[in-house]
Structure formats: C-alpha cells, structure tokens
Amino acid sequence: MSRIQVERPHALGLEAVRDKAEKLAQRLAREYDVRYQWRGDTLEFKRSGADGSIEVSDAKVRVEVKLGLLLSTMSGSIKREIERALDEYLA
C-alpha cells in the first residue's frame, strides 16, 4: 500500500474552493468510476484500489490518497497528476 499527500495554498475562499473540489470529484467520478461524498469540509472518495480525501479550508487544500497494491506501482505518476489537477483547479 502506498500513500500520497499533496497540499496547496489558495486565495479563493472556502465556498469557491469547495465548488472546485466538487467539480473535480464529478470529473473523477465520470472518468475513473470514483464514488464520493462530503463530510463537512472534507470530500471522501473511493474506487477499486484507491481511496482518500480532499480537505478544503479558506486557505489551503489537502489531498490524501491511499493506493492498493496494484496502483502503488503507479504512485509517482498519480501524484504528478494530482499536483497538476490541483494547480489547474486552483489557478
């Protein structure tokens, strides 16, 4: 099992960053069959071989992903994709 953690600051405000996290989750649901739900300001997600959370606040976004054995071999490329997506969505 592998764990990925990525954190990014932002200046969007809580409501705007929550909206962007929701749009990202909808995209992941469409493209990767991810199921997700909000618990307060934390979006929890799960799919076969991976689960994690996106925690949003008024100043930062923190993503944590736990990868199963098969996806662990791709952890480097998955982390880069998470970083790219965060940079795109928070711009």
Structure explained in plain terms:
This protein is of the alpha+beta class. It has a single domain, classed as Kinase associated domain 1, KA1 (TATA-Binding Protein, 2-Layer Sandwich). The chain is 43% helix and 37% strand. It is built from 3 helices and 5 strands. It has a 5-stranded antiparallel sheet with strand order 1-5-4-3-2. Strand 2 and strand 3 form a beta hairpin. The relative contact order is 0.25. The model has no long low-confidence stretch (mean pLDDT 94). Pfam families: PHA_gran_rgn. It comes from Metapseudomonas lalkuanensis. This is Polyhydroxyalkanoic acid system protein. InterPro entries: PHA_gran_rgn (IPR013433).
Number of helices: 3
- Please tell me the overall pLDDT: 94
Provide the succession of SSEs. Answer: EHEEEEHH
**Main beta sheet, described?**
5 strands, antiparallel
- How helical, in percent, are the residues? 40-55%
Distance between the termini: 31 Å
Q: In the CATH scheme, what's the topology name? A: TATA-Binding Protein
Strand order of the largest sheet: 1-5-4-3-2
| Low-pLDDT windows of residues | none
Q: Please, how many domains?
A: 1
Derived from helix and strand composition plus strand pairing, the structural class reads alpha+beta
Supply the CATH class: Alpha Beta
Protein name: Polyhydroxyalkanoic acid system protein
Pfam families: PHA_gran_rgn
InterPro entries: PHA_gran_rgn
